[in-house]
Amino acid sequence: MSTSLPVGKHHSIPAVCRIRGRGTATLISPGLLLTSKHAVGSPETCASLTAVFFEGTKKKPVEVRLLPEKYYFAATYPEHMDYCLVACEQFGILNVVPVKLPLTKAGWVTVVEGEVIMVVQHPTGSDEPDNNDVEDEEPVERVKEAPGETKRFVEVLRRRDDLLYLKTRMNERTAGCPAFNDRGQLIGLQSQVCHELSGLVNHVVSISSIVRHLFANKQLWRIEHQSTFEELWGTWYIQNDISRIVSITENFKDDSIFRAAALELCEHTRKLELLGKFVEDNGIRTVLLSIDRFQDDETMLCACIRALWSVSFLEGQARTLLIEGKAADRLLLAMEKFPDNEQIAELVTLFLNNTSSGECRLSFDSDSSYRALKLVHTAQRRFKRAIVLQKFGYSFFNALMDANPSNAKILVDVGAVSHITFLVQEMMNNLYLMEIVMRFLRSVAVSQEAVDMCINKYILVRGGKGSLHLVAGMVIELMIKYKDVDSILLDGNHVLWGFGNDMSCRAAILQHPRAFEAMRLSLPVVLAKSAAS
């Protein structure tokens, strides 16, 4: 909603001030002035200028310094977009209510030709037109400053897109002047300046075009507002435009707006056709920032992790951005913060599984490997019936053992071998899971150090859920049950031979009544594999 002001020659607008020797400015947010670049010039020139409030009122005038070193933004293109935002001192004007800049389309007023508007000016006069005024960066000595504020009611002669043209007043220069309609709504910024080609021109740049230009340059976050997310979304969102959503988060950084926009951004990753644009338009960076900003917000974390999981299927730039952005570290932290959240556990595990293989993959040092493997396996034990977590957790373990066989020792240490007995007993009919489990056991079995750890930790030899009789028995039973599945037969053969290198293990395997049957079933597959290689 736009703020309406009283309109009339005798009504004071405290937020409008004079830039000494240069023109007019308007306080649009605490400590922030909107004016024209013609009025304040470059940051270096601007640093020497002051703004005067309360002139021509019963209050004592207050003069404040402009602070371009704190904030300064001036439009440079297109040429007609002549506006500037600059910070100023706040002491003495803390009670001044800013003129609200309408940041949503509900506050953008349409002005038509023939309409009368009010322009608040602090004109500067000249004996003759000076074609160099537009380029002048310093106060012009011969310019004569009017004694105070002037309110003029003028007719809009012509409208061309974002510009309203007014009648030119000779021998007068104005810059940075706010223009209001008859309802007191801010509709634009007026300047009368001398252009090299068109001469003296008196026009108003519409406020909506200024706001759109600020949005495009990611500057709206500097301005206080009371807009709701729905109003902002309705104004700035373009359907399926990822870059627009990212721009909304960059322009409106207060928690509630940023969070709502980031949630919408995450939701867009459910559309597979948008994933490429999500990567190109800084979607990954925005989601990572959201995780950092809302790391205690369980709902937000779930949405962000789901978005990163969706992107993790992509290779190339997406994978590079995830690795460089340390996405895995953030997701592991989320698992640590919310150990009882099954959705977070599953999504992080899926992400780790996707990004731990391929040409560009996550790399783990010994500490980070232990952290990741332990967190995933702890989640597997906590959520025993979560099939997705079991499948892709062990698939992730396999990928890390392929990358570094020493990870097999970590997996033995965290208890991933003994947990398999539960999976086989409870989920033997899940072929895909059993293939992954057998592949896991094969990777452990080819590491003599891992096998020795199993023996030394009493996982394989002595009784209990992970005893060798159970492990050997389940491998043999799986080979017989899935006698037509080559991967299970081949991996099972390697498991039995790998563990059988230890004498005590070999004896236990040979005691199983169907051990020879399992080995016989696997022999053709082993021979075929050997011949192919």
UniProtKB/TrEMBL annotation:
It comes from Trypanosoma congolense (strain IL3000). Pfam families: Trypsin_2. This is Uncharacterized protein. Residues 127-139 have a biased composition (Acidic residues). SUPFAM superfamilies: ARM repeat, Trypsin-like serine proteases. Residues 122-144 are annotated as: Disordered.
